[in-house]
Write a structure and sequence with these properties.
Elements lengths: L9 E6 L3 E8 L2 E4 L9 E2 L1 E3 L7 E2 L1 H5 L8 E3 L13 H6 L3 E4 L5 E5 L2 E3 L1 H20 L5 E6 L5 H13 L3 E7 H8 L10 E8 L4 E8 L19 E9 L4 H20 L7 H17 L5 E7 L5 E7 H26 L8 E5 L6 H11 L12 H13 L16 E5 L3 E6 L7 E7 L9 E7 L9 E8 L12 E7 L5 E7 L5 E6 L7 H13 L1 H31 L5 H23 L6 H14 L1 H14 L4
Parallel strand pairs: 1-11, 11-12, 13-18
Antiparallel strand pairs: 1-2, 2-3, 2-4, 5-6, 5-7, 8-9, 9-10, 13-14, 14-15, 16-17, 19-20, 19-22, 21-24, 22-23, 24-25, 25-26
Helix pairs in contact: 3-4, 5-10, 6-7, 6-8, 8-9, 12-13, 12-14, 12-15, 13-14
The structure holds adenosine monophosphate (AMP).
């Protein structure tokens, strides 16, 4: 077999219906290559102007409304299809669809016909230039993804489009397989696994059931993964080509229009520009509600008619419920075609921008009875997986981190910027750890959980992996809430962190891919630094612990002192006041600068107060006994 030279550049391309991306894998793992303006996504839109070269991407999409007849969007739907099959679609398209050679569907503009391959080639060319600019090297080869249900003609058309763009398509890869590869699925599983890839985008929904057979494609690469794509068999696919985020946007628009009709006393007629504004506002509201509980919407309907309303996440979720139910019906169909029960699925991978919506994630999680994979950007994961396959084909996998162990410790931030490690470096995967935490302020109702990675004792010296809020804790004194934090790392190195407040049952969670973007040399550097700073780090950690404990002492002893001051010898009370004040000064200085703080001074001040307060506690207890109601 012809083994390519190790330095060969092969990129991964997600040639999508609405958007396309190009990605590359180096030793940090796969990443999308953005354009010169830093935009990762290239709209799959081409404008065929009469008197100028074609424009591709953002510019073509921005002017699509002005040039409907020669702006070609969603050309992927035409690839490798007979004109006869697409007659119904042709009537709905703003541009002309005609019958080309051998009965194939073609696009006509300005007296010329263009095969869909030619239009796709323009998109691929733009991606190639984007990749070349980002990498500073010529790019001539790519792995290109297609839907799992693409037939031979559609796959061949995709290869031909590559050839026309000066790209050798070294592999056509199924999109769901690519998404699984991006998560490292198939490299670590000891036995066959069933994977479901749930892909909900702006306009389409696809679900695929895959079977991963480890070792099915032993190769000559060090990882035994010479041909990663061959590990995956597609057992079944289902979907709906007109179901996606756009449908939800339409429902939100209707909700806003209904509110306008109510406020203005009758249906409002929409000019095309108001309709465009409304559509944009509806989508933005939907996206904002993925993070917020409510979102304000303000629309100017013209003629001084301004509308302001608030949409809640609960409202959005009830609008989305029937759409989500339709996706689950497709899942049921695909599972039944594959002869597999929902609870027998080992992993679920989320693809498509709409899977950022919490309601979608939760519904999918409930349906399959497990947390789906969402740690990677769902709009980039297919391109990233294509890059993983490209690196395998280019023989460039060797320098990747092997994830049989956790390369850097995983933990959370605690009071004062210290790190509590839950899973230690070099633990074997899968791994799990649970620890109890509490609040540090009286009446605290929200706790920020900050997940970090690294060997150092201070958050500032670690890598931040993600943060989330545990909200709605009932107000309690500091230290009373019991917050259970659980870390679970699975065989693919994906980390699920959840936090539960025991009394209220309040729960929040996040998923991250800790090894993503992490290079071998970075791990080595962090390890070296942890040795070099071990002594300092220990001292700082001691300072932070002392600050936390001394603050609690100051609070408890100060409270007791106020309660029983009238029972105390004034000289003793004054002595305690003085010791509390000097400990408070030491704590505040250490809070301001834990690195410069002297742990011994702090420990001595704390010890002095603790010893001096023994009598105070005895007096306080005696007073409590006296005040207890007689039986
Ligand atoms: P895709 O076709 O995969 O690019 O997905 C695009 C769809 O995802 C559009 O309907 C977007 O409005 C939707 N989308 C993108 N980000 C979010 C988000 N954070 N929450 C909800 N929907 C989103």
């Amino acid at each position: 077999m012809n083994v390519p030279a190790p330095t060969e550049v092969i990129v991964g391309i997600d040639l999508g219906t609405t958007n396309s991306l190009v990605a590359w894998q180096d030793q940090r793992g796969p990443r999308v290559l953005p354009d010169a303006e830093g935009r990762p996504i290239l709209p799959s839109v081409v404008r065929l102007a009469a008197d100028a070269p074609p424009t591709v991407g953002h510019a073509a999409r921005a002017h699509a409304v002005e040039h409907p007849q020669d702006t070609i969007a969603s050309v992927k739907r035409l690839m490798g299809r007979d004109f006869a099959e697409l007659r119904a679609l042709a009537e709905r398209l703003p541009f002309a669809l005609v019958e080309g050679s051998r009965g194939m569907a073609c696009v006509a503009a300005h007296g010329r016909t263009f095969a869909p391959e030619e239009i796709s080639a323009m998109i691929l060319s733009a991606l190639r230039q984007q990749a070349e600019a980002a990498l500073g090297q010529p790019v001539r080869k790519a792995v290109v993804t297609v839907p799992a249900y693409f037939d031979d003609a559609q796959r061949q058309a995709t290869r031909d489009a590559g050839r026309l763009a000066g790209i050798e398509v070294v592999r056509i890869l199924n999109e769901p397989t690519a998404a699984a590869l991006a998560y490292g699925i198939g490299q670590h599983a000891p036995q066959p696994e069933t994977i479901v890839v749930y892909d909900l985008g702006g306009g389409t929904f696809d679900v695929s059931v895959l079977n991963v057979v480890p070792g099915a494609a032993e190769g000559d690469d060090a990882s035994g993964m010479n041909d990663a794509g061959d590990l995956f068999q597609v057992l079944a696919t289902a979907g709906d080509t007109s179901l996606g985020g756009d449908d939800l946007d339409r429902l939100v628009m209707e909700r806003i229009e209904a509110a306008a009709a109510e406020q203005f006393g009758g249906a409002v007629s929409l000019t095309p520009s108001v309709r465009q504004t409304l559509r944009h506002a509806a989508e933005q509201a939907k996206i904002a509600l993925s993070h917020a509980d409510t979102v304000p919407v303000a629309i100017e309907f013209g003629g001084g008619r301004g509308l302001e309303l608030v949409i809640s996440r609960a409202e959005l979720e009830s609008m989305a419920a029937p759409l989500i139910e339709r996706t689950l019906a497709c899942c049921r169909r695909a599972l039944s075609d594959a002869g597999i029960a929902a609870d027998a699925v080992d992993r679920i991978v989320l693809v498509g921008g709409m899977t950022r919506m919490p309601g979608v994630r939760e519904a999918v999680g409930r349906f399959f009875g497990r947390v789906p994979y969402s740690a990677l950007d769902p709009e980039q994961v297919v391109a990233m997986g294509a890059a993983v396959q490209a690196a395998v084909l280019a023989g460039r996998r060797r320098d990747l981190l092997l994830l049989d162990v956790i390369p850097l410790s995983l933990g959370i931030e605690t009071v004062g910027g210290a790190v509590a490690k839950l899973i230690m470096r070099n633990s074997a995967v899968p791994a799990r750890a649970v620890e109890m935490f509490s609040t540090s302020v009286d009446g605290q109702v929200n706790v920020l959980i900050h997940v970090v990675q690294g060997e150092r004792e201070l958050v500032a010296d670690c890598r931040s992996l993600g943060r989330f809020d545990l909200r709605g804790i009932p107000p309690m004194p500091a230290g009373v809430p019991q917050i259970e934090v659980e870390f679970v790392v699975d065989v693919n190195g994906i980390l699920d962190v959840s936090a539960v407040e025991r009394r209220s049952g309040r729960r929040a969670a996040i998923q991250v891919a800790p090894s993503h973007g992490l290079a071998r040399d970075e791990v080595d550097r962090m390890e070296r630094e942890s040795f070099a700073h071990a002594r300092d780090d220990m001292r700082i950690h001691r300072v932070i612990d002392l600050v936390v404990n001394a603050s609690l002492d100051i609070k408890w002893i100060g409270d007791a002192l106020q309660r029983v001051r009238s029972d105390l010898d004034p000289a003793y009370a004054a002595d305690l006041d003085g010791r509390i004040a000097s400990l408070r000064n030491a704590v505040e200085a250490a809070r301001r600068d834990p690195v410069a703080a002297n742990a011994d001074v702090l420990a001595e001040a704390k010890q002095a107060l603790d010893v001096a307060s023994v009598r105070l506690h005895e007096i306080a207890i005696a007073r409590s006994l006296r005040e207890m109601p007689a039986r």
